[in-house]
Design a protein that fits this description.
It contains 9 helices and 10 strands. The protein is of the alpha+beta class and 263 residues long. A 5-stranded antiparallel beta sheet has the order 1-2-3-4-5, with no helix packed on it. Strand 1 and strand 2 form a beta hairpin. The longest helix has 35 residues. 18% of the residues are buried.
Length: 263
């Protein structure tokens, strides 16, 4: 199934239906004018055309109904048609997308295709629909909204450093430790969201997006927090703990650790 072809097919019938309904409204207006004037003979002369118009509208609606009921969304998702069209649509819009099978990422959104329930989940929430173009345009708008939101790199870095200090202290178990050691970003996310409901409000994708903005800011100029420390991101030995981001130029980066240090 090619959804855009399916959409265009229904759209052509819908456009015809709009014209038919417009004509029918004019017929009804003339009919009621005759009845309002008390000229029932003239009103009766309008009835055949009004009935014929109603029949044409009914056939158009029946055609749309048949097309929609015949669409097998389970097969559409299971066959990979939706995924292929989604990837192609992202490329058309110049949007980075990674993944395969039923799992994809359009940073900072994670997409999961669920053929069994004929739905798409975006960051764990059901998407509005399954038209690839509509999905991509919606993601594009959401990302633009995120980018337009105010962001203070130094303030965010200071908040992150609080979680960083707590993580170092907890890991030391009362022993001496280096105050500028590397800490996995995934560890800091757990400290930033200690309760389940907090993790729903600030999920890993939202965290990755903020880290990406902080990374971009730090690339432009050193980010210094109130106590004079600076932030530095780095790779790690455990790739499973790395988070994927896109920098300001759209380049893919994998960040695993962060440390706060005094120059």
């Amino acid at each position: 199934m090619i959804y855009e072809a399916f959409y265009d097919d229904i759209l052509s019938v819908a456009e015809e239906l709009k014209e038919q309904l417009s004509s029918q409204q004019k017929l009804v207006k003339r009919l009621m004018k005759c009845v309002g004037n008390g000229d029932l003979k003239a009103a009766a002369r309008e009835l055949p055309a009004a009935n014929a118009a109603a029949d044409v509208c009914a056939r158009s609606i029946a055609s749309i109904t048949e097309k929609i009921e015949a669409a097998d969304m389970f097969a559409y998702l299971r066959s990979g048609d939706f995924a292929r069209q989604l990837v192609n649509m992202c490329r058309e819009y110049g949007i980075d997308i990674k993944g395969e099978g039923n799992s994809y990422e359009v940073f900072p959104y994670r997409l999961k295709i669920d053929p069994q329930n004929a739905e798409l989940q975006i960051n764990g929430k059901k998407a509005l629909g399954l038209r690839p173009r509509a999905v991509v345009e919606d993601l594009q708008k959401k990302r633009a909204h995120l980018l337009s939101a105010s962001f203070n790199p130094a303030q965010y870095a200071a908040e992150l450093s609080s979680a960083y200090d707590l993580a170092l202290l907890a890991a030391s178990k009362g022993k001496a430790y280096a105050p500028d050691a590397d800490v996995h970003l995934t560890t800091l996310h757990r400290y930033l969201t200690p309760m389940r409901r907090f993790r729903r409000d600030y999920d890993p994708q939202s965290f990755a997006f903020d880290i990406a903005r902080l990374y971009d800011a730090e690339t432009d100029a050193p980010v210094v927090i109130g106590d004079g420390r600076r932030v530095h991101f780095g790779p790690g030995r455990d790739n499973s703990k790395a988070i994927r981001i896109l920098d300001a130029l759209g380049s893919e980066r994998f960040l695993s650790t962060v440390r706060f240090y005094r120059p």
